[in-house]
Amino acid sequence: MRWLTVTLITLLVALQWPLWLGKGSWFRVWQLDRQLQQQRVVNQQLIARNAALDAEVRDLKQGTDAIEERARNELGMVRNGEVFFQLLAPASANRQ
């Protein structure tokens, strides 16, 4: 009877080993699930960024407002008859 119990326990451990510690174990499935959730968050951020870039490209292709805004902000361009004023931040008191 003792040998039968030891044999059954050994067989049970041998069958459970791959389930808990093997290549396709529960721990590995849990790790992969966590990585999948993290990747989904990254994908959502990239989808939002791509949508913003797509909207900007469509705006640049269709209208002149976006082009004008970029020219004013990035290149400092002004229209004919406009006066450009640039306000500078006051110099720091720590500079000497």
From TrEMBL:
Gene Ontology CC terms, in alphabetical order: cell division site; cell septum; plasma membrane
Main location per the UniProt record: membrane
Keywords linked to the UniProt accession: Cell cycle, Cell division, Cell inner membrane, Cell membrane, Membrane, Transmembrane, Transmembrane helix
InterPro entries per UniProt: Cell_div_FtsB, FtsL/DivIC
Record GO biological process: FtsZ-dependent cytokinesis
Cell location: Cell inner membrane
Coiled coil residues, start to end: none
Membrane-related topology note: Single-pass type II membrane protein
Pfam families: DivIC (PF04977)
Residue intervals annotated with topology Cytoplasmic: 1-3
Periplasmic face of the membrane: 22-96
Record's function text: Essential cell division protein. May link together the upstream cell division proteins, which are predominantly cytoplasmic, with the downstream cell division proteins, which are predominantly periplasmic.
Family: Belongs to the FtsB family.
NCBIfam families registered for this protein in UniProt: PRK00888.1
Subunit annotation: Part of a complex composed of FtsB, FtsL and FtsQ.
Protein name as it appears in the record: Cell division protein FtsB
Organism: Paludibacterium purpuratum
Taxonomic classification: Bacteria, Pseudomonadati, Pseudomonadota, Betaproteobacteria, Neisseriales
